[in-house]
């Protein structure tokens, strides 16, 4: 099984901050990496797929990068609506999620 | 609009079974794979299985083999997930989601169905 490890688990930030979340895969996943945003009591929402492609309708302050086994999600200027939990997911070999990163208000 | 609408919350006793439905609308049902993902309270996301609405056998997570069954009804554009021999650890929010290919991200999710297992 491919393991996905996110860091940090929790991140405290302020509106306007640049935020970066990292996701590491236990083996190469050929760029088949997605990022989701989840708010309490809601379903996850797709933000980015194939590591760096922005899903339609997602604000351009979100960006993804990486290859091989290391990937990052960046929010260029944190907005009030962005306080949520973020998950990475690999879909190269079956489907596995990271444990999540909660972005909190500092 | 494109959506997946799930059935309502369930409360079950240990040892019972539960069936959750996921009705698709706004797109061609057979063109997209459907997945089930669950989330225990305060925990992360766990993939449970995949079913191709156009045919073929479902593929289940190893830890649920023998307890989970996924089926499709193309006449109503609905996918079902049945989990048997429920235990307290199965208490979770259950989501369905879709992808275009079986190597694609999940672009649309259902609203979730809370299943509570309690004596």
| Content of β-strand of chain A | over 45%
Summarize the largest interface: chains and residue counts: A-B, 22 and 20 residues
Strand count of chain B: 11
Number of beta-strand segments of chain A: 11
Describe the structure.
The complex is a heterodimer of chains A (106) and B (119). By secondary structure, chain A is mainly beta. Chain A has no helices and 11 strands. Chain A has strands at 4-7, 10-13, 19-25, 33-38, 45-49, 53-54, 62-67, 70-75, 85-90, 96-97, 101-105. In chain A, the strands form 2 sheets. In chain A, strands 2, 4, 5, 6, 9, 10 and 11 form a 7-stranded mixed beta sheet that branches. A 4-stranded antiparallel beta sheet of chain A has the order 1-3-8-7, with no helix packed on it. In chain A, strand 5 (45-49) and strand 6 (53-54) form a beta hairpin. Chain B is mainly beta and 119 residues long. In chain B, 0% of the residues lie in helices and 48% in strands. Chain B has no helices and 11 strands. Chain B has strands at residues 3-6, 10-12, 18-25, 33-39, 46-51, 59-60, 68-73, 78-83, 92-99, 108-109, 113-117. In chain B, strands 2, 4, 5, 6, 9, 10 and 11 form a 7-stranded mixed beta sheet that branches. In chain B, strands 1-3-8-7 form a 4-stranded antiparallel beta sheet, with no helix packed on it. In chain B, a hairpin with an 8-residue loop joins strand 9 and strand 10. The relative contact order of chain B is 0.32. The mean pLDDT of chain B is 97. The interface between A and B is medium-sized, with 22 and 20 residues.
Q: Any descriptors?
A:
heterodimer; A: 106 residues; mainly beta; 7-stranded mixed beta sheet; globular; B: 119 residues; 4-stranded antiparallel beta sheet
